[in-house]
Amino acid sequence: MAETLDERTLLPEHPDQIAELRRFLDSVPATVEAAILRSADGEVVALPAEVVEALRLVARALSEGKAVTVAPLHTTLTTQEAAELLGMSRPTFVKLLDSGAIPFTRPGRHRRVRLTDVLAYREYRRAERSAGLSELTRISEDMGLYDDIAPNPLRRN
Q: Which of 10, 73, 134, 155 has the most CB atoms less than 10 A away?
């Protein structure tokens, strides 16, 4: 029976097995082109590198007690779902849409955004924040602000 690929959230329900899987996947070199998966009845299939990397990321998150959501990239989201994904309020997200920062469609009364567009915006914002932090660090170093050693606030006289 074929299963359709919808969004699915996985919870860390077997922490010992997940920790063992994470240790194993972390030991597999990133340069490995494929790994082998063997079923209980002995059937073998090769896993391509992108599947091994996906398993590595899922195992890492689950072993840290985080839930993992797997969703196909063509998925469309409501404004509330997209806002939650970006960690902002829905009204703030709608302002982003209205400013043209993220494309959207309006198939009916409500706006819909593609998951790929939301993820691309999130990555753009991360890169922008990282560049800003690097610039602030450079300015602070140029001003000699890292040369002074602050006294230990926890030490009592």
A: 10
